[in-house]
Design goal:
single chain; mainly alpha; 63% helix
């Protein structure tokens, strides 16, 4: 069994283990102006927990430490105190090449995600090669908490709008009803992207008003902002707002 999975099990079983942190390293990489800026964009995260490491810097740091013993222990040391550590956690998982290990780490991490930014940074590359195994997981996430649902929709958007696209996947997303802003925004983003990639197939979801009104209008708004939608398509979509 992977070391990281062993640590996760031990933590859940109540073993007293010291939390593994990258606090010092991240503070060394922090940018105060960026900290102030990014804290305003993630209202669900306490501002005092934002260190302020720029995303490209954090990605590079994740690549630098990936595969080390400390990084493996860090993945098993949840929850993290700092927003930037959660971002780092998402980048580390996204780079895992073994599907079974990756899906296990994703499921362990999802309950601790408390903001849209960390949720959206979690895009495991290995998922693209395992679409059949991934679909049952996505269907489970779509029935979960706010960021599990958002993550599930994001996975359908990231990996199932090209060659793997099926109309039933768009049906799954269209049937989601929620009062959560961050879920509804992701539904809108999904349909805007779907219109860009699968316009004819997805258009009936808009013309037949299969989405909640706010989400319907936001999907149209995001679609007409896309350079992948033609001017004629944009003009027609604007007539469909409710």
């Amino acid at each position: 069994m992977f070391l990281v999975l062993q640590i996760s099990v031990m933590l859940k079983d109540g073993f007293n283990m010291k939390s593994v942190t990258y606090k010092k390293e991240l503070f060394d990489l922090s940018d105060e102006e960026y900290r102030k800026f990014s804290a305003k964009l993630i209202p669900t995260v306490p501002a005092e927990t934002v260190i302020g490491v720029r995303t490209p810097v954090l990605r590079s740091f994740a690549k630098e430490i990936a595969g080390t013993k400390k990084a493996q222990e860090f993945l098993g040391s949840l929850p993290h105190k700092w927003f930037d550590e959660n971002q780092l956690h998402a980048f580390l998982i996204s780079g895992i090449k073994d599907y079974e290990r990756c899906i296990c780490e994703v499921n362990a991490f999802l309950p601790y995600i408390n903001n849209w930014a960390t949720c959206d940074q979690l895009v495991p590359k290995v998922f693209k090669k395992h679409s059949k195994e991934l679909l049952p997981q996505i269907k489970k996430w779509l029935k979960g908490s706010t960021y599990e649902v958002r993550f599930g929709i994001k996975m359908l958007m990231s990996f199932f709008l090209d060659d793997e696209f099926e109309l039933s996947y768009a049906e799954l997303v269209s049937k989601i009803r929620s009062d959560e802003y961050y879920i509804n925004m992701m539904i809108a983003w999904y349909f805007a992207t779907a219109l860009a990639k699968q316009y004819e197939a997805v258009l009936p979801f808009i013309t037949e008003k299969k989405l909640a009104p706010w989400t319907h209008n936001r999907a149209i708004q995001k679609a007409v902002e896309s350079f992948r939608i033609t001017d004629a398509q944009k003009e027609f979509l604007r007539t469909l707002k409710v």
